[in-house]
Amino acid sequence: MDSIRLRILSWKSILGFGKHSFLTVSQIFNFGHNHYLRWVYFNLSKISFSDEILTALHIIGDGNDFRIAKPGVDSVKFDDVKEFLNNQVYNDYHNEDGTLTKKGIIGTAIMKSVRKRKAKARINQINILSQKWRLQRKNQGY
User: Fold this and answer.
1) Which residues touch 72 (CB under 8 Å, ≥6 apart)?
2) Does the model's pTM come out above 0.85?
């Protein structure tokens, strides 16, 4: 009988694969790559996250439960979560007639400055991590 190894990741777990292989889940979340973490959950059968992370990714909570049985994949639910979040954001910033609310007008100006600040922080963090990685390789003699 074969045993199935299910990997449940926490905030401090290093992903170990993909384009963010050397980053922890919290670093990926802080960089704003929530979409990638959601994709990992719904499209990789042997990877799951703790309930705290699933709540932060809006997979559970807020009166909804998009959780899937693991091991398993469900790309349809991934699309459902994406549509749910898009509708939620649209409703927060628009009136019934489609015009922007005050929150939407102020939010767009604030988001531009926040995006610039996050981009600078992301670049600095990646530079620090890549320097650490280079020094580790150099220390090991590669």
Assistant:
1) 45
2) no
* Residues forming beta bridges with residue 60, ordered by sequence position: 65
Q: Facing residues of 14 across strands?
A: 24
Candidates 131, 133, 128; CA nearest to 30 is 128
The C-alpha atoms of residue 66 and residue 50 are separated, in whole angstroms, by: 14
Q: Give the per-residue pLDDT at 2.
A: 65
Query: Do residues 96 and 67 lie in contact, with contact meaning Cβ atoms separated by under 8 Å?
Result: no
d(CA 29, CA 35): 9
- How far apart are the C-alpha atoms of 47 and 7, rounded to whole Å? 5
What residues have CB less than 8 Å from 30, skipping those under 6 apart?
A: 125
Parts of the chain with a pLDDT under 70:
1-3, 90-94, 98, 100-109, 141-142
Phi and psi angles of residue 64, each rounded to the nearest 5 degrees, phi first: -130, 160
Q: What DSSP state is assigned to residue 123?
A: H
Alpha-carbon gap, residue 71 to 116, rounded angstroms: 38
